[in-house]
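FORM 12-B: Structure-to-Sequence Request
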């Protein structure tokens, strides 16, 4: 436990030294704390297994019910974020349905990028991927206003 606590402390203290990046606000949500979360899950599993092995039969059912309840709470709370990218989905639909070679988008969200694409030349690689994935029939550049 001491090693895990030391790792969490050092990891958290070193995070600010990564510097500011344009995409930091999108990554800091979940991905940044993933090593700490995995370490805590490992410790929870290991300690639960140890206790289940060594606990008396009288308390084993209660402790098992407690573990299952605890895990159910976190499983229910961990809802998929399927509605968080509706703006990007609408923008991709607009690009796919547009007859234009260069599509102007009026959406205030990032589309296949960390930020808004204000210059249509910046969407060149993305448009090749959209064509490769059969989202569009041909290469269609896009930009956002």
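FORM 12-B RESPONSE
SEQUENCE OUT:
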């Amino acid at each position: 436990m001491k090693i895990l606590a030391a790792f969490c402390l050092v990891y958290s203290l070193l995070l600010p030294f990564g510097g500011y990046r344009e995409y930091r606000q999108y990554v800091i949500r979940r991905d940044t704390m993933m090593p700490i979360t995995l370490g805590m899950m490992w410790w929870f599993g290991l300690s639960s297994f140890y206790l289940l092995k060594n606990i008396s039969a009288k308390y084993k059912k209660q402790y098992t019910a407690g573990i299952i309840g605890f895990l159910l709470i976190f499983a229910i709370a961990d809802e998929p974020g399927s509605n968080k990218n509706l703006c990007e989905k609408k923008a991709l639909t607009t690009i796919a349905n547009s007859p234009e070679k260069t599509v102007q988008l009026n959406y205030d969200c990032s589309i296949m990028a960390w930020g808004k694409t204000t210059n249509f030349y910046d969407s060149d690689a993305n448009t090749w991927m959209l064509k490769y994935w059969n989202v569009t029939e041909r290469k269609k550049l896009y930009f956002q206003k």
